[in-house]
TrEMBL record:
Membrane-spanning parts: 20-43, 360-387
Chain's gene name: Mppe1
Family statement drawn from the similarity comment of this UniProt entry: Belongs to the metallophosphoesterase superfamily. MPPE1 family.
Pfam families found in the cross-reference section: Metallophos
Keywords: ER-Golgi transport, GPI-anchor biosynthesis, Hydrolase, Manganese, Membrane, Metal-binding, Transmembrane, Transmembrane helix, Transport
InterPro entries: Calcineurin-like_PHP, Metallo-depent_PP-like, MPP_MPPE1, PGAP5/Cdc1/Ted1
SUPFAM superfamilies: Metallo-dependent phosphatases
Protein name, UniProt field: Metallophosphoesterase 1
GO CC entries: endomembrane system; endoplasmic reticulum-Golgi intermediate compartment membrane
Length: 398
C-alpha cells in the first residue's frame, strides 16, 4: 500500500513536466503556423478589387464578365547560386510563395503580370543554374489553368544592354514565351509587352528587331482605333485589333529626373528621393520614352525596376505606375497592384503584404514569453510571484 502511493507521488512530477513540455510545443507551433502561414491570409484577406466606372452602367453578370481582374507585381529577384545564401533563399522564397499562392486563392485573378527581374543572377547564370532557378520559380508561382501568368524581361534576367546577348534573350523567351512588341488582348483590352532593356537606341541587332516589332504593332493599333470613314490607304490591309487604347508593360520606367515627386509609405526613402536617375540605367532615355509615348499613346504604363512606388503623369495625361518590389529582401513592406480593367477604363488598388518588422516583433515577443514561462516552471521566478501575491492579498485586506 505504501509502495503504490510513493510510486504515484514520483509519477506526478513527471506528468507535470510532460504536460508543460506539451504546452510549450503547442505554443511554439502556434506562433510558427501564424507567422509563416496564417498571417498571409489575415493580411491579404483585407484587400479588395477596386470598382471600375464602366461597370456602373452594366448589370452584375455583364460586369463580372467584362472586367479583367489583373494582379501586377515586380522584381522578385530569386537569388542565384553565386550571391544567394541558402538561408536567405529559403526565407525569401517561402515568403513570396506563400504570398502569391494566398493571393491567388483569395483574390482569384484572371491574369498576373510580373514586370521583370524575376531572377537576380539571370544575367550571368550558367545553363545548370538557370534551369535550377526556373524550376524554383515554377514551384513558387504555380497557378491554375484559370489564371494566366505573363512575365516581362528585366535587366537581371537578360543583363543590362552591354551584357544582353541573343542567347540570354532566347533563353528567357523560351521559358516565358516573351517577345518585345508582343500584344496580349484579353476581354478587348490591349496589353503591349516591351523589352525595355532593348530600348538603348544604338542600333544593336536585338534593339533593331525589338523596335521594328514595336513600330509594326503601333501601326496596327493606330489603324484599329481609326473610325471607318476616316480610314486611309495605309490601313486597308492591316489586321484590325480591338479599338482599345493600349496599356504598356515594361521593366524600366519611362524617363523622369528622380523620385523626388513620389509619395506614399512605399516610395523611395527620403535620402534617396533626390538622387538623379541615370538614363538607360535607372530609367529609359528621354528619346526612348518619347518614342513609346508617340508610337502607342497608352492610357496606362506599368513598370518596375526601382523597387519603390511612384506615380507620375507623362505629357500631363498619361499615368505611369512604378510597382514596388515583391521581395522582402528589397523592402520591409512589399506589395502588389490589383487592377480592375475594361476596354475603356481601369481602377487600381495596392495590396500590402505582411510587414517583416511586425513578424519579427511577434517572434521576439513570443520568445520573451517563452523564456518567462520556462523560468517560472523551474521556479526561478517564484519569489517575485509570491511577492506580488502578498501585495495583492494586503490590498484586499485593507
Amino acid at each position: 500500500m505504501l509502495s503504490s502511493s510513493s510510486t504515484a507521488v514520483k509519477t506526478l512530477p513527471l506528468k507535470r513536466r510532460l504536460c508543460f513540455l506539451l504546452k510549450l510545443v503547442c505554443f511554439v507551433s502556434s506562433v510558427l503556423i501564424f507567422c509563416e502561414f496564417l498571417i498571409y491570409y489575415v493580411v491579404i484577406f483585407q484587400c479588395r478589387w477596386p470598382d471600375v466606372k464602366g461597370g456602373a452602367h452594366m448589370g452584375e453578370k455583364e460586369t463580372s464578365a467584362s472586367v479583367l481582374k489583373a494582379i501586377i507585381l515586380a522584381d522578385t529577384h530569386l537569388l542565384g547560386e553565386i550571391k544567394g545564401h541558402w538561408l536567405d533563399k529559403l526565407r525569401r522564397e517561402w515568403q513570396m510563395e506563400r504570398s502569391f499562392q494566398t493571393a491567388l486563392w483569395l483574390l482569384q485573378p484572371d491574369i498576373v503580370f510580373i514586370l521583370g527581374d524575376v531572377f537576380d543572377e539571370g544575367k550571368w547564370s550558367s545553363p545548370q543554374a538557370w534551369a535550377d532557378d526556373v524550376r524554383r520559380f515554377q514551384k513558387m508561382f504555380k497557378h491554375s489553368v484559370f489564371t494566366e501568368l505573363v512575365v516581362i524581361a528585366g535587366n537581371h534576367d537578360i543583363g543590362f544592354h552591354y551584357e544582353m546577348t541573343t542567347y540570354k534573350v532566347n533563353r528567357f523567351e523560351k521559358v516565358f514565351n516573351f517577345t518585345s512588341g508582343k500584344l496580349i488582348t484579353r476581354k478587348g483590352i490591349n496589353f503591349v509587352l516591351v523589352n525595355s532593356v532593348a530600348m538603348e537606341g544604338d542600333g544593336c541587332g536585338i534593339c533593331r528587331t525589338s523596335e521594328a516589332k514595336l513600330v509594326a504593332l503601333s501601326h496596327k493599333l493606330n489603324c484599329s482605333q481609326q473610325k471607318p470613314n476616316h480610314s486611309n490607304k495605309r490601313c486597308r490591309d492591316v489586321e484590325k485589333l480591338p479599338a482599345s487604347e493600349p496599356i504598356l508593360l515594361q521593366h524600366y520606367p519611362l524617363y523622369r529626373k528622380s523620385d523626388a515627386e513620389c509619395t506614399g509609405e512605399d516610395s523611395a526613402p527620403p535620402e534617396e528621393k533626390n538622387i538623379p536617375f541615370k538614363e538607360k540605367y535607372d530609367v529609359l532615355s528621354q528619346e526612348a520614352s518619347q518614342k513609346l509615348l508617340w508610337w502607342f499613346q497608352p492610357r496606362l504604363i506599368l513598370s518596375g525596376h526601382t523597387h519603390s512606388a511612384c506615380e507620375v503623369l507623362h505629357a500631363g495625361k498619361i499615368p505611369e505606375i512604378s510597382v514596388p518590389s515583391f521581395s522582402w529582401r528589397n523592402r520591409n513592406n512589399p506589395s502588389f497592384i490589383m487592377g480592375s480593367i475594361t476596354p475603356t477604363d481601369f481602377s487600381l488598388q495596392k495590396c500590402f503584404l505582411p510587414f517583416e518588422s511586425r513578424v519579427f516583433t511577434i517572434y521576439c515577443a513570443a520568445g520573451a514569453l517563452l523564456v518567462i514561462l520556462v523560468l517560472a516552471h523551474v521556479q526561478l521566478l517564484t519569489p517575485p510571484f509570491y511577492f506580488a501575491q502578498r501585495l495583492i492579498s494586503k490590498h484586499k485586506a485593507v
